[in-house]
Design goal:
Blueprint: H1 13-21, H2 24-34, H3 40-47, H4 51-63, E1 67-71, E2 79-83, H5 85-88, H6 91-104, E3 129-130, E4 136-137
Antiparallel strand pairs: 1-2, 3-4
Protein backbone atom coordinates (compact mmCIF):
# COMPACT_ATOMS: atom_id res chain seq x y z
CA UNK A 1 0.00 0.00 0.00
CA UNK A 2 1.34 3.43 -0.93
CA UNK A 3 2.09 5.80 1.91
CA UNK A 4 -0.29 8.75 2.11
CA UNK A 5 1.32 12.01 1.06
CA UNK A 6 0.62 15.02 3.28
CA UNK A 7 -0.83 18.09 1.61
CA UNK A 8 -0.45 20.20 4.77
CA UNK A 9 2.07 22.61 3.21
CA UNK A 10 0.43 22.80 -0.21
CA UNK A 11 -0.14 26.26 -1.63
CA UNK A 12 -3.79 25.44 -2.37
CA UNK A 13 -6.33 25.85 0.46
CA UNK A 14 -8.47 23.03 -0.96
CA UNK A 15 -5.48 20.65 -0.78
CA UNK A 16 -4.78 21.69 2.82
CA UNK A 17 -8.41 21.11 3.78
CA UNK A 18 -8.36 17.68 2.16
CA UNK A 19 -5.27 16.83 4.19
CA UNK A 20 -7.44 17.23 7.31
CA UNK A 21 -10.88 16.00 6.22
CA UNK A 22 -10.31 14.38 2.83
CA UNK A 23 -11.28 10.78 3.55
CA UNK A 24 -14.86 9.63 3.77
CA UNK A 25 -14.60 8.29 7.32
CA UNK A 26 -13.52 11.68 8.66
CA UNK A 27 -16.37 13.48 6.90
CA UNK A 28 -18.90 10.89 8.13
CA UNK A 29 -17.59 11.24 11.69
CA UNK A 30 -17.96 15.01 11.43
CA UNK A 31 -21.47 14.62 9.96
CA UNK A 32 -22.45 12.34 12.85
CA UNK A 33 -20.98 14.78 15.39
CA UNK A 34 -23.27 17.47 13.94
CA UNK A 35 -26.13 15.01 14.42
CA UNK A 36 -25.29 14.68 18.12
CA UNK A 37 -23.14 11.54 18.19
CA UNK A 38 -20.53 11.95 20.91
CA UNK A 39 -19.24 8.57 22.10
CA UNK A 40 -16.83 6.14 20.49
CA UNK A 41 -19.30 3.24 20.54
CA UNK A 42 -22.04 5.42 18.99
CA UNK A 43 -19.74 6.41 16.11
CA UNK A 44 -18.64 2.80 15.70
CA UNK A 45 -22.08 1.24 15.65
CA UNK A 46 -23.64 3.98 13.52
CA UNK A 47 -20.92 3.95 10.87
CA UNK A 48 -19.99 0.27 10.97
CA UNK A 49 -16.33 1.31 10.93
CA UNK A 50 -13.62 -0.92 12.38
CA UNK A 51 -12.61 0.12 15.90
CA UNK A 52 -8.95 0.64 14.97
CA UNK A 53 -9.86 2.79 11.97
CA UNK A 54 -12.26 4.85 14.10
CA UNK A 55 -9.68 5.32 16.85
CA UNK A 56 -7.18 6.57 14.26
CA UNK A 57 -9.65 8.99 12.66
CA UNK A 58 -10.86 10.34 16.03
CA UNK A 59 -7.25 10.83 17.17
CA UNK A 60 -6.37 12.65 13.92
CA UNK A 61 -9.47 14.88 14.07
CA UNK A 62 -8.69 15.68 17.71
CA UNK A 63 -5.01 16.42 17.02
CA UNK A 64 -6.00 18.75 14.17
CA UNK A 65 -8.46 20.65 16.35
CA UNK A 66 -11.70 19.51 14.68
CA UNK A 67 -12.89 17.55 17.72
CA UNK A 68 -12.01 17.69 21.39
CA UNK A 69 -12.73 15.29 24.21
CA UNK A 70 -14.87 16.29 27.14
CA UNK A 71 -16.20 14.55 30.23
CA UNK A 72 -19.35 12.57 29.51
CA UNK A 73 -22.48 14.70 29.74
CA UNK A 74 -24.17 12.05 31.91
CA UNK A 75 -21.46 12.23 34.59
CA UNK A 76 -20.08 8.74 33.83
CA UNK A 77 -16.37 8.02 33.51
CA UNK A 78 -16.56 8.04 29.71
CA UNK A 79 -15.11 10.75 27.48
CA UNK A 80 -17.11 12.26 24.63
CA UNK A 81 -16.05 13.80 21.35
CA UNK A 82 -17.41 17.26 20.62
CA UNK A 83 -16.87 19.61 17.71
CA UNK A 84 -14.60 22.57 18.36
CA UNK A 85 -15.25 25.99 16.84
CA UNK A 86 -12.93 24.93 14.00
CA UNK A 87 -14.97 21.75 13.57
CA UNK A 88 -18.29 23.59 13.64
CA UNK A 89 -16.90 25.71 10.82
CA UNK A 90 -17.25 22.64 8.59
CA UNK A 91 -21.05 22.74 8.76
CA UNK A 92 -21.38 24.53 5.42
CA UNK A 93 -19.05 21.95 3.84
CA UNK A 94 -21.33 19.13 5.03
CA UNK A 95 -24.43 21.02 3.84
CA UNK A 96 -22.83 21.71 0.45
CA UNK A 97 -22.00 17.99 0.01
CA UNK A 98 -25.55 17.07 1.06
CA UNK A 99 -27.14 19.48 -1.38
CA UNK A 100 -24.86 18.41 -4.22
CA UNK A 101 -25.77 14.75 -3.59
CA UNK A 102 -29.48 15.53 -3.36
CA UNK A 103 -29.30 17.26 -6.75
CA UNK A 104 -27.10 14.75 -8.57
CA UNK A 105 -27.23 11.35 -6.86
CA UNK A 106 -30.91 10.71 -6.10
CA UNK A 107 -33.87 9.94 -8.31
CA UNK A 108 -36.77 12.37 -7.77
CA UNK A 109 -38.92 9.61 -6.24
CA UNK A 110 -36.16 8.24 -3.97
CA UNK A 111 -36.48 8.67 -0.18
CA UNK A 112 -33.77 10.60 1.63
CA UNK A 113 -33.22 12.60 4.77
CA UNK A 114 -34.07 16.28 4.75
CA UNK A 115 -32.23 19.14 6.43
CA UNK A 116 -34.75 21.58 7.89
CA UNK A 117 -34.82 24.79 9.90
CA UNK A 118 -34.88 23.78 13.57
CA UNK A 119 -37.45 26.46 14.46
CA UNK A 120 -39.92 26.36 11.57
CA UNK A 121 -39.38 22.83 10.25
CA UNK A 122 -39.14 24.22 6.70
CA UNK A 123 -36.47 22.87 4.33
CA UNK A 124 -33.37 25.05 4.21
CA UNK A 125 -32.62 27.07 1.09
CA UNK A 126 -29.90 26.04 -1.34
CA UNK A 127 -26.47 27.43 -0.56
CA UNK A 128 -25.31 30.17 -2.89
CA UNK A 129 -21.97 31.86 -3.40
CA UNK A 130 -22.26 35.64 -3.26
CA UNK A 131 -19.93 38.51 -4.02
CA UNK A 132 -19.08 41.10 -1.38
CA UNK A 133 -21.88 43.21 -2.86
CA UNK A 134 -24.41 40.37 -2.57
CA UNK A 135 -24.49 39.30 -6.22
CA UNK A 136 -24.99 35.54 -6.79
CA UNK A 137 -21.87 34.03 -8.38
CA UNK A 138 -21.33 30.95 -10.53
CA UNK A 139 -17.94 29.26 -10.85
CA UNK A 140 -17.34 31.10 -14.12
CA UNK A 141 -17.75 34.45 -12.31
CA UNK A 142 -14.75 33.77 -10.06
CA UNK A 143 -10.97 33.39 -10.36
CA UNK A 144 -8.15 32.48 -8.00
CA UNK A 145 -5.55 35.14 -7.27
CA UNK A 146 -2.46 33.19 -6.24
CA UNK A 147 0.11 34.55 -3.84
CA UNK A 148 -2.28 36.81 -1.93
CA UNK A 149 -1.65 37.28 1.80
CA UNK A 150 -4.11 38.28 4.51
CA UNK A 151 -7.06 38.32 2.10
CA UNK A 152 -9.53 37.86 4.92
Amino acid sequence: MAKRVSLWNAGCPVARALDVIGDWWSLLIIRDAFDGVRRFNEFQSGLGIAKGMLATRLRDLTERGILETAPASDGSAYREYVLTEKGRGLFLVIVALRQWAEEHLYRPDEHRSLLVDGKSGAPIARLELRSGEGRTLEWSDTRVNKGVFDAM
